[in-house]
Amino acid sequence: MAPLLTIGEFSRMTHLSVKALRHYHDMGVLEPAAIDPFTGYRSYDATQVVPAQVIRRLRDLGMPLDSIRSVLVAPDLETRNREIAAHLGRMERQLAQTQASVAGLRALLAGPEVRPAVEYRKIPAVTALAVAQVVSAADLATWGSDALGALSDALATDGVAPGGATGPFGALFPGDFFELERSEITAFVPVGSPPAGFELPDGTVRLLEIPAVEAAIAVHEGPLDDIDRTYGALGTVVAERAIGVDGPIREYYLIGFPETEDESKHRTEVAWPVFLTS
Amino acid sequence: MAPLLTIGEFSRMTHLSVKALRHYHDMGVLEPAAIDPFTGYRSYDATQVVPAQVIRRLRDLGMPLDSIRSVLVAPDLETRNREIAAHLGRMERQLAQTQASVAGLRALLAGPEVRPAVEYRKIPAVTALAVAQVVSAADLATWGSDALGALSDALATDGVAPGGATGPFGALFPGDFFELERSEITAFVPVGSPPAGFELPDGTVRLLEIPAVEAAIAVHEGPLDDIDRTYGALGTVVAERAIGVDGPIREYYLIGFPETEDESKHRTEVAWPVFLTS
DNA sequence: CTTGACTCTCCTGTAATGGGAGACCGGAGA
DNA sequence: TCTCCGGTCTCCCATTACAGGAGAGTCAAG
Who contacts A114 (Cβ-Cβ below 8 Å, separation ≥6)? Predict the structure, then answer.
């Protein structure tokens, strides 16, 4: 009453290649209903057609096999839907980034080389609330908004910063972050000196002295996805003047998501520390 | 006046990892401005920042390095834009397929198991105009519409088919097409017997005798992306009744794109040849 | 001269298969 | 019974665009 199918028959029914079915077996995503202990022949059950087709759909959506396995073993519909929704969210974000890339590409190809103005300026030392964590480039955006939230919460805590923020939010990027795509990033917001002996309640937000620095500075206009253009212009100017570089690169978010959703209105100051050699 | 940059400096300016830059060098996508013949150290030029950023954008769009190389060596803007447009077209199609997959997935997960009705019927032999080619699963949709066009053109040719088509368009899929994702597919349209000795002008369209066959048949409703559901149901029924399988599987496009753009209205008959063993 | 930061090449690993080799299995015809 | 052919098995290698790390050479400053 439950006829078993050979891998070839099952392949025809599900439109999954034999190779793929064997791979799904190895990965534990779709186990054959039976395996002949002597010949190793796989046998599938007609009831496995539907799961196999679900797998096909999820693969079409680019979901990795590991995630598919979790989805399939999820007992209840709720967990299952949550996993799928999470994946669709990732897809959506990826699509948004694709569109941003297209826009950035157009600007880069058609653009008349509008070099942002670069100035040399000394940034004074400040006291700041800060959070630091090792972050990879892929997680930067997510981590950034989390960090911003944490800093905002800390700011709002009574007694921490009597005068509120004394400047825009910023972040420190060690040089090797751009080379390795992964390094410890520090997000901060400058505040007036807090009452002596004051202790922060939360463990992640610390009080940090951001040292003074002399830097080449340019303001990036537009979405952060395009910020490499400003880095390039800044780096070119720095290189042309033959000036040494030292210390982490800083970004100051003059206008960001808290101010407006319209990314084209965003303004970010990039400060590239230098010390004059000439 | 043209200062050379180390790979690390260039990495910081472009937000491309050192590893990626070396890889681009190996692939011939972005050659360093100079290479020290003794140490092998790569040196980059400030003018290479913009090309590097273009590469970054194209990679964000998922364009393979081979294509990026072609784009970069393209001398004129026109060729360049054509390449990019072609890639965006591919992306768009992929997006459409993603959406279709989401819809299909919902139907599969939420669906109340609406099994299409399966009947056993004998299909009589017919004479048909046919085109055949080895096609891989990925190219199936494209090839299908091309083949349909070729067949329509042949039909419209004077004297070929005095009575016009005598039935819907169809296609033959050898069993191993679904297992290997690549096999020789035959698209055909039945016609009345043409005048004796008549010769077709075009080389690709041939006259073919489609043999009679006894088959299990089900009608698939909706887009072809979901046709594996009908294959599964059909295969399950065939397997449950313990019936042998022989010959290529056939699809008849009762209602397709020529009739309506609305894919949910499409109707495709799937005929799975069987010969009764009981 | 040493140290530490930087760079080099080369090898391995990733994810999800495809391609192919060489061997085994099962049913059908001679 | 032998043989043939198609189906299946397990391995191993290739793909893409890098990342990670080993081991060694290079550069500039103290």
Answer: none
Distance set, CA A109 to CA A112, A263, B41, B53, B115 (Å): 9, 20, 30, 10, 53
Kind plus residue range of the DSSP H or E element containing B163: none
Strand C proximal to A76 Cβ, under 7 A: no
Tens digit of each residue's pLDDT, chain B (278 residues): 567 899 999 999 999 999 999 999 999 999 999 999 999 999 999 889 888 988 988 898 888 999 889 888 876 777 777 777 777 777 777 777 777 777 777 777 665 556 778 888 888 989 899 998 888 877 888 888 899 998 888 888 766 666 678 889 999 988 778 777 778 889 999 987 765 556 666 678 888 888 888 888 889 988 888 888 888 888 777 766 655 566 788 999 999 998 999 988 999 999 888 765 44
Proximity of residue B6 CB to strand C below 7 A: yes
pTM: 0.70
Closest nucleotide C1' to the C-alpha of A21: C17
A124 neighbors B80 (Cβ within 8 angstroms) = no
Q: In this predicted structure, what is the pLDDT of residue B27?
A: 94
Residue A184's nearest CA partner among A139, A246, A153 is A139
Q: How far is the CA of B226 from the C1' of D5 (A)?
A: 34
Nearest chain B Cα to A45, which residue? B236
Mutate to test the interface with B, among A108, A109, A179 (most CBs of B within 10 A): A179
Which nucleotides of strand C come closer than 7 angstroms to any CB of the protein? 6-9, 15-19, 24-26
Residue A199 neighbours by CB under 8 Å, 6+ apart? none
A176, closest residue in chain B (CA to CA): B12
DSSP readout, chain A? ---EEEHHHHHHHHT--HHHHHHHHHHTSS--SEE-TTT--EEEEGGGHHHHHHHHHHHHTT--HHHHHHHHH--SHHHHHHHHHHHHHHHHHHHHHHHHHHHHHHHHHH----PPPEEEEEEPPEEEEEEEEEEEGGGHHHHHHHHHHHHHHHHHSTTT-TT-BSS--EEEE-HHHHHHSEEEEEEEEEBPPPPTT---SSSS-EEEEEPPEEEEEEEEES-GGGHHHHHHHHHHHHHHTT-EE-S-EEEEEEE-TTT-S-GGG-EEEEEEEEE---
Residue A49 has which token pair?
């057609």
Closest residue to A3, CB basis, from B11, B234, B240 = B240
Whether B108 sits inside 8 A of A53 (CB atoms) is: yes
CA dist., res. A17 & res. A44, Å (int) = 14
